[in-house]
Protein: 2-hydroxy-6-oxonona-2,4-dienedioate hydrolase
Amino acid sequence: MPTELTYDSTARELATDQGVLRYHEAGEGPPLLLLHGSGPGVTGWRNYRGNLPVLAEHFRCLVLEFPGFGVSDPTGEHPMLAANAAVIRFLDGLGLREVDVIGNSMGGIVAAQVAIAHPGRVRRLVTIGGLGRNLFSPAPGEGIRLLMEFTDEPTRERLVRWLESMVYDPALVTEELIEERWALATEPATLESARRMYGKAAFTAAMKAAQAADTPPYWAMLHRLKAKTLITWGRDDRVSPVDMAILPMRAIPDVELHVFPDCGHWVMIEQKTAWESVVLAFLTRKDDSGSGEGAA
Structure:
């Protein structure tokens, strides 16, 4: 298995009845679906490119690009509403009945929703921040407010402020990262899509609609999640503060929580080695099948 995987060598396309889904594939073994988060200039490749060499030693890694983020074909729906169906369309298109899933932030929420709605499709689930709801911290968090400011009036300065809110160590926000994110985030179609999610007016309207809805929010349904779940979080997350983890930690029946110190929202990047170690231990652990002999 090569230690360096390139964008071009891993890029794939899947034609579906709702446009082309683009993804990256690396490695062999049991299928592992990786779902990215949201935000200016985000892609699945940018979320997980640093983790692929390690994960691909054990799994057939499939990094899906959600519709509406500038890579896969948009469906015309709100990007967050289109994501769940895109996952099922993707799995069906590749003929995959059951997978393990890693979801970053929004990707973790999507993965949990898919696992609840289709319990036979997700064996084990790993989430990275974002899952749950604020219990003690203000909502929305600092990073979400900065994201809304950038989305409404995109400037380089606002992009940098938002990026710095994502990490514990601001040195991770390099000029290369800024330029990479700026190019995609300000592309007209991608920016318009982002405004449907994170423009202040759209965000406020969505919150009001959620409060008035007859259907329960996803976090109120986490007790139905059957997949073994590992929640990973940065202790210093300013986008989704760590108190959000309390509700899913209690509600999900078979769940573990690992909190990483000196770490913001991008756990898989900022605590790369530690995170990979914890995740691989969880995903490769044998299911409990013993009789309990020898227990105290």
